[in-house]
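Lecture notes, unit on protein representations.

Consider one protein chain, 517 amino acids long.
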Amino acid sequence: MFVDIHQEKILILDFGSQYTQLIARRVRECRVYCEIQPFNINLDKIENFNPKGIILSGGPSSVYDEAAPSCSPEIFKLNIPILGICYGMQFMAHIMGGEVKDSSRREYGQTRLFIDDFTDLFVGFEDTPFINVWMSHGDRIHILPPGFTPIAHSKNSPIAAIKNKSRIFGVQFHPEVAHTPRGIEVLKNFLYRICGCLPNWTMESFIKDSILQIKRTVGGKTVICALSGGVDSSVVASLLHRAVGDQLVCIFVNNGLLRKNEAQEVITVFGEHYKMNLHYIDAEEVFLEKLKEVTDPEIKRKIIGNEFIYLFEKEAKNIGDVEYLAQGTLYPDVIESVSFKGPSATIKSHHNVGGLPEKMDLKLIEPLRELFKDEVRLLGRELGLPVKIINRQPFPGPGLAVRILGEVTKERLSTLRNADSIVAEEIEKTDFKDRIWQSFAVLLPIKTVGVMGDERTYENVVALRVVRSSDGMTADWVRLPYEVLARVANRIINEVKGVNRVVYDISSKPPSTIEWE
């Protein structure tokens, strides 16, 4: 829907690397706009995209495999700077007349890279004979294609980086990962020196351009936004409100499955402080009645999603003359739909406003679809949103319903809410709170024997889930200090009626998911 306003941009072709999104994030950190497309994108689309440079990602294949991914060789004739990373370098060597073979000695992990040419990619590296880089390959270039020269080597790779006069470069290592400490300098040399990009991708410029686009798109029409109080919907609402003012109508549905005091916080921040046109729907009793005696997590999700859509649609009709729906789609969602591997397999249904347009026949506005999660938080800061909202942890659309294993009742919601609030309070006191992706309580569908005072008890079990992650795709459990675990457990058992045992979840994703349901 929006017109492309990016004058300087980098195109990343995805050959299936686990690091492709990381390449994009590093380029964005250099304040250069970039997009990821599958390796087999049509050449016309590349030309229409008009990139100032192209990066070929790594990938798990060997270039000589029968089913190896391959892009159009015509990209090397576009007179656009190209950087091939790992498989990307091997692919360019293979397609341009060189020879790639299986190496007798594979090279994985940290390796010393010896630089032979301190121009172009390695400007600024003259102070050291070698740098530490991260290798991950079993193949290597045996014969260089015509016109190419080697510019770096390692102990096991005589050709670890290459270039030619047409500004086409390749590196066998991964400059995008943290294990290549000076990798960001290599990327900056490619972006700034070779492609001639300027570091002008900032949140300030994004706000200015987005407001202009929103105004042009919306005109005088009404826009509705489903406001949950989470980071994404809050930033979308704030950006749209700055662009169109009272033409924006935010709809906040309190389904009774929210965190402690969350409904009041949303009303206070957006309705009273920001003076937004906020429609509040108290639907707690409706949702609890629908969820009565339901224990299957997928059925819970569908009931909550369908009821939300029904209430949202009903409210939108009451507003009248609504033409646009704003949604907090992020760039990782967009990438999944066009990635090398195709859309990810469904692990569980996700309650998202994305199902609304099909039902409501509204035009969709997705102002965050170019941003990663960390960029959304930066945008929120630039828009002046409270830190408590900007730093809010991801929260499932079905809310506490999928953190209560078994039937959802008002009593069990109260128990979980109080326990979860204690987790949040104690984590907030720690020095490592900013390094935690999610921390929450889960109410289990079992009871255990305990002793409180001189009496035997038979009460609920609460599980703690605390993980670190960069994007939620993978996660590892946090090794919380024993004293923190002890404080959390003691407070929950002493302060939350009906709980006599606390356990800690030490499983990672994969194989487990972050949420329990």
